[in-house]
Structures are given as C-alpha cells and as structure tokens.
Predict the structure of Autosomal recessive hypercholesterolemia-like protein.
Amino acid sequence: MDVLVRVVRKSPTVFNSFKSRHQKLHDKWGENNETLNEGMTFYLKYLGSTLVEEISDGESYGDGISTKAIQRVISMEKSSGKKWRKVALNVSPRGIKMCDMISNEMLLDVCIYRISFCTADRNHERVFAFIARNTINETMECYVYVCAKRKIAQAVTLTASQAFHIAEYLEEEELERLKSVEKEAQKRLCVEDLIEVHDHGSLSNGYHPKLSNSVTSSDASTPLNLSPPSNSPCINLQEFDEDNLDDCFSRLAENRIRQRQPSFGTDIFNEDSVEQYFKNNKRLEDFVHQKSVEDLLLL
C-alpha cells in the first residue's frame, strides 16, 4: 500500500512517458514487496455493470463511451429501487478484486491486463468506473461504483492506473530475467556439445552415426544434417521446474489478452485533493458515513 502511495505522489500525471515511469518505480521498488502485492482496498457501493461496444485501435473508451455506459447503469439502478451492495475493492498490480462486505463473497476478480479504461466520471462527481473484458464470454463491460466523495473516486482511478504501470514494469523485469536464463542455458548446451564431441572423437577418427536399414544407397550418399535448424532456440528444459512452466503459460495467456484490446487508459490527472486523501487515509470512515438516500439524490 505504501509503495502505491509513493508512486502516485511522485507522478505528476498518469500520462507520463514509460521511461519516466520506469525510473520512478525503479528507485524505490524493492522496499516493501509484500505490502505492494496486497494492493490498496477501497470501500464503495456497487451499482452494477453494462455491456459496451468494442472499439478499434487508436480509439478510447473516454470518447463518450464510458459516460453513456455509466449513465445507463445509473438510470437502471434508479428505476429498480434496490439497495446497493457495499463492497471492498482491492486494486493491485495483479488486478481488481471485488468482495461483498456482508457475505464476504468474492464477486469479481479481473486481471490487470483485461482492464482497458478507468474513470472518475465528470458528470457524476462521486462515481468511479472501469471497463474490462469479461472472463466468461470475452465481452467488454463497464463496472460502476459510488464513492463517498469525489476525491475517493479520483484516488481509485489513479491507483488502478499506477497498478497497471507497475505490472508493466514487473513484466519487463521478468522478461529480462527469462532472456538471461535462456542465454545461460544456450551457453551450457554448447559447452556440453563440445565435451561430447571431444569424448567420442570426430567422424574422421572412426566415429560414424549408424544408419537404419530403411535408408537406401542414394539416401546414404546424401550428407546428413545432424545439427538443429539455425532458427530453433536451444533451451535446456532442466532449467525450468513445474512452477516456472506454469508461470510462463500464465504470462503467455496474459500477453494474448493484451494483444486483443487497446492499452490501458484513463481521463484523470493527479490532483492535490487526491494526495490529501492518501495522507488522511480515511477510506473506511468516509464509507461508514455514506448514506444510500444521499447517494441517490446526488446521482
């Protein structure tokens, strides 16, 4: 939690270049990994969700799409008259989790790479919403929440944005580590090949590969290429245990998800009120004093 707060305070806007983000994160990255992995929890009221249309490359959900989706959810909730769910929303570099505060039921668990857009809606000052790809039918949905104050909606939006940037940083670090492991495996494999050739001797010293009886004389006259193709990577499978392989497959799946949708976006900038909110750390207190009647009148 402290690490996410530091990242938000250090970033002048959420639209900084990746290079500046990388430097900011790298300076104090390893101070408290355990707290960072837990993320930050916000206490909100869940209005509901609605489907949104797919967008083309270069377009943004901030171009009126999110506003219409939020208004649609609010209109449906006003007409239904049902009581809104009180939820705890945990935001971390792994994604967003939503838990019912009464039943403790896990209502939503979205990977960070499935989230395409988040916003503190300008037309409804206490509303936070994010758009993500559904894990069941792969449709895009907008999830809408009511916050106790405008600055809480801004804080959740900024935290989600920074969590995405941290996840990008972690992925780059992991890719660099895997590249290093692969290089070491290739070097080790080459050394083992040299030792094997030295032990058995060269072909000119009497060592010949035994050909099967099915090989014809014309085939035998053709020199055999015993080396692997030049474009095939040499990977020593002994370097990877079962956990590492599972991790690689999970990362591959996440990368495929990312390729199917636009980059993460938001329409909010860092503000002094958000920083003050982090300093006071009154998320639960603000939520407790929130009243459903007031929520309905303000929407």
About this structure: The longest strand covers residues 40-52. The radius of gyration is 27 Å. Strands lie at 40-52, 85-92, 95-100, 106-111, 115-120, 127-133, 140-146, 265-266. Residues 150-200 form the longest helix (51 residues).
